[in-house]
Amino acid sequence: MDKRGRKNPLLLGASSFFNDVGSNSINAIIPFYITALGGGGIAIGLVSGLRDGISSFFNMLGGWLSDKIGKRKPLVFTGYLISDIFKFLLLIAGSWQQAVAFDSSSRIGKFRDAPRDAILAKETENRGKKFGIQQTLDSAGAVIGTLLVLFLFWKLNFSFRTIILISSVIALVSLITVSLVKDYRNKEEKKTSAKKGNILGKDLKYFILVASVFVFGNFGFYMFLELRAKEITGSIIIPLVLFVIYNIVYSAFPVPFGKLSDRIGRKRVLLIGYCLFFLISLGLIFTSNIIYLGVIFALYGLVYAITDSNQRAFISDMSGSAKGTAFGIYYFATGITAIIGGLIAGYLWNIDYSIMFTFTAVIALASIILLLFMKEKLNAEKI
Fold it and tell me: What is the spatial distance between Cα 165 and Cα 210, in angstroms, rounded to a whole number?
């Protein structure tokens, strides 16, 4: 790999950073924007599920297409561009249905993720660390974005629409950084990938099942944490502050846990994350104290830092040369379960928050049990 190619984790991370400064500024207020337009718990569950569901379908399409044409970078660039367009369209939403439609449709651009991960997967050494670098910059952008929206909303008293406009403009910077990425995949690799028959081995299929079960209970979870914080405090500012804490923790730990998974294996590290999510769900059933909820926000950030990049690294470890397609199928499977999980959660939330968190605890426990049966070759050669 040439010198420029070795900069890809940083360049892709920078693209994620600027996109997430804009996206997370919007993500932080979207539950309140939707409720201000008349939406309720089911609307929140719908948008959280649709986000992942639409992402999943287009991730699978993007992964397959990137393997077929032998190029990743154009798809990554186009994906960021489409997402930015729908961010701007949120400005004209006149109902919660339109807000849900525009926010969910921005996820069409997520077909960039599988090609992006395939570029990162070109790194055969310290793969967990490389994915961790990208994830750290991604979540660092989320921290800055949340701090930005807190400043704009609290100190400057900007409206939701003005915040969305500013956030959308910032997200455009990601197009510049992604244009500098080295797309080094050649025609020979394209032919090899095209000839691959069954790219999903038995272990890979099983892990996609495990991850899908986990996501069934871990759908847009932060939105319901924000709503719970608002219920307890009666304030929008406190949930935004807690969301900042979540993102700070989320951004600080992907690299350390990526390095740890490189040493001791993905399964052991993911078990830590799955078990922590189970304990968080149990705690939320009984918690009505804002201090305890703040601790839970931080712990949930740790859950995401542990699971997100390491699940992707695990997929990379077990997939063959058609990594784009493998990532696409992974995103598709987890996204479909997120849609269903989000809708169920929204319905249960309208009944009682404790019932919803009981649901997520049961699903988390099921994912732990399934992961325990997962086989992993710690010293296997990475493809």
Answer: 38
